[in-house]
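Design a sequence for this backbone.
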């Protein structure tokens, strides 16, 4: 019996442009060489997939999909922290952004712009009651005018009483609020943080955090923050 040929990894397909209806999650996953559960379609092929050929992070995309689409009790391999996952996605491209927005159930794609991210950021801060942690600054327009509290954005000086209050407010929040607030801080810092998130809970595994936010009905907020952030 002849062995069926390996599927060919798509190279020319691209996600729909901003402003258009997005493709389905499964269609977008095919662009990344992943099946509907987030596992590689071309694991035994020497031909690189679209996302691999761009030097991006197929493991990060697959981890998010596998976690969201698997039963709560199914173990997911890997000990990646949520902070590392956020850092991996800082340099995502339009295809990755489209996939995360599709996972968030967005019907129309939005561009990664300062305006779109600022609108999403303010919605999350207000809806999830995070306003005690973030304030208006003087760094620029849109989201660049929003900063974590407790320090001087111009000099970088930390105000100990205000920072102590910031951390106390953070510790008093529900875990899903903490996960969203920590994600905003990591985006603000464009990576790890040791200014605000010291001596506070923030070392969640990516799998546990994604499952927790899914169960708390706020995973779409997290996905939109990651997908739309154009850099701080």
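Sequence:
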């Amino acid at each position: 019996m002849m062995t069926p040929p390996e599927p060919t990894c798509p190279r020319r397909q691209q996600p729909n442009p901003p402003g258009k209806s997005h493709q389905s999650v499964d269609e977008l996953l095919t662009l990344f060489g992943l099946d509907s559960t987030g596992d590689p379609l071309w694991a035994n092929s020497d031909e690189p997939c679209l996302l691999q050929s761009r030097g991006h992070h197929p493991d990060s995309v697959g981890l998010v999909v596998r976690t969201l689409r698997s039963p709560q009790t199914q173990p997911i391999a890997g000990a990646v922290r949520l902070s590392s996952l956020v850092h991996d996605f800082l340099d995502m491209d339009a295809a990755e952004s489209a996939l995360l927005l599709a996972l968030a159930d967005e019907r129309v794609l939005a561009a990664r712009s300062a305006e779109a991210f600022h609108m999403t950021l303010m919605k999350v801060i207000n809806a999830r009651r995070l306003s005690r942690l973030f304030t208006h600054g003087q760094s620029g327009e849109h989201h660049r005018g929003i900063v974590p509290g407790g320090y001087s954005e111009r000099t970088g000086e930390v105000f100990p009483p205000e920072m102590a209050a910031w951390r106390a407010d953070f510790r008093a929040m529900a875990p899903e609020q903490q996960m969203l607030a920590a994600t905003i801080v990591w985006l603000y810092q464009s990576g790890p943080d040791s200014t605000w998130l010291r001596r506070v809970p923030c070392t969640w595994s990516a799998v546990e955090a994604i499952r927790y936010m899914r169960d708390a009905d706020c995973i779409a907020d997290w996905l939109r923050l990651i997908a739309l952030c154009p850099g701080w």
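The two ends are 57 Å apart (CA to CA).
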